[in-house]
């Protein structure tokens, strides 16, 4: 696929994260001559990323509006990947709303910028049941309104993935570890529906969106080939890891207690009460917008992880 305007300089916010690292690798492989500017507070922690051709790690605070404007200097494309799954109202507002506003305003002041790709999520809605869904919807609205109000707005693409899996994800690897440790797995939100999508397919969607002419509908629903409940996902992961355990779905009240307890543990929690509220909305493609097939991508299923997890009895660390 030949882009109408091959990007010369792409800025990637969140480029050092789980999805961002894969996006950087795909972009570097697709367009070896393109420069990739990746802001991060800790460049030393992303040395592997710096080894990719064209990648420039820049010590910066993406939450600083002045630095956002400076980082976009000379860029003709922006990929915005920064997001959080857990937090309070202040954290979601800061990351999904205020941060987006800073970057949207900066993008509107850079007339050379041609494309903006924002990775959002399925099920976002201003009336959603969770802080996560409402704040992500607010971020999408800010991109649309701010860029439309500018004199020469860059083309906007909004990618909405379901839960993203891959060899380095925390989601499937943690469920594999838990099933190695416990004889049975109690699970909140066991009947919530998802359409798991491979990180490589989301990254490929970013690349192909940058390469393609702007679409009439800026939204692309990034979903895998199967609609599965959370219970089915956990069971599939257990089977792939050779340690499948019985999964006991918890009623909502018990699920809230479990999510609250998990939220008190150190580090990023596996699940929070806000996650449970998000699960009230099926995390599956609506069919109202184009999907991955519109970009020529055949989505991979969870079984693509076969062979990734360490065999049973060989420890809890997955192979990468």
Automatic annotation (TrEMBL):
It holds the Pfam family Epimerase. It comes from the Bacteria. Residues 10-215 form the NAD-dependent epimerase/dehydratase domain. This is NAD-dependent epimerase/dehydratase family protein. It comes from Pseudaquabacterium rugosum.
């Amino acid at each position: 696929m030949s882009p109408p305007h091959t990007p010369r300089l792409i800025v990637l916010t969140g480029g050092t994260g789980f999805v961002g690292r894969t996006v950087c690798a795909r972009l570097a492989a697709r367009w070896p001559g393109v420069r990739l500017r990746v802001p991060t507070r800790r460049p030393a922690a992303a040395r592997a990323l710096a080894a990719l051709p064209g990648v420039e790690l820049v010590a910066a605070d993406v939450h600083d509006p002045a630095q956002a404007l400076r980082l976009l200097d000379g860029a003709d494309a922006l990929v915005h990947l920064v997001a959080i799954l857990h937090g309070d109202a202040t954290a979601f507002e800061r990351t999904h709303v205020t941060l987006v506003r800073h970057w949207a305003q900066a993008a509107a002041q850079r007339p050379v910028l041609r494309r903006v790709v924002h990775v959002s999520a399925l099920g976002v809605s201003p009336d959603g049941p969770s802080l996560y869904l409402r704040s992500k919807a607010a971020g999408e609205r800010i991109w649309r309104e701010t860029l439309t109000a500018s004199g020469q707005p860059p083309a906007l693409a909004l990618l909405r993935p379901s839960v993203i899996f891959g060899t380095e994800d925390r989601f499937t690897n943690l469920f594999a570890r838990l099933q190695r440790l416990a004889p049975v797995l109690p699970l909140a939100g066991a009947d919530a529906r998802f359409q798991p999508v491979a990180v490589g397919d989301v990254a490929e969607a970013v690349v192909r969106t940058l390469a393609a002419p702007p679409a009439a509908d800026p939204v692309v629903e990034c979903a895998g080939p199967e609609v599965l409940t959370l219970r089915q996902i956990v069971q599939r992961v257990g089977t792939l890891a050779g340690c499948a355990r019985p999964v006991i779905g918890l009623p909502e009240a018990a699920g809230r207690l479990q999510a609250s307890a998990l939220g008190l543990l150190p580090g990023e929690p596996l699940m929070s009460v806000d996650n449970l509220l998000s699960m009230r909305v099926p995390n599956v493609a609506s069919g109202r917008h184009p999907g991955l097939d519109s970009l020529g991508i055949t989505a991979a299923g969870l079984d693509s992880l076969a062979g990734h997890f360490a065999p049973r009895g060989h420890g809890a660390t997955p192979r990468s």
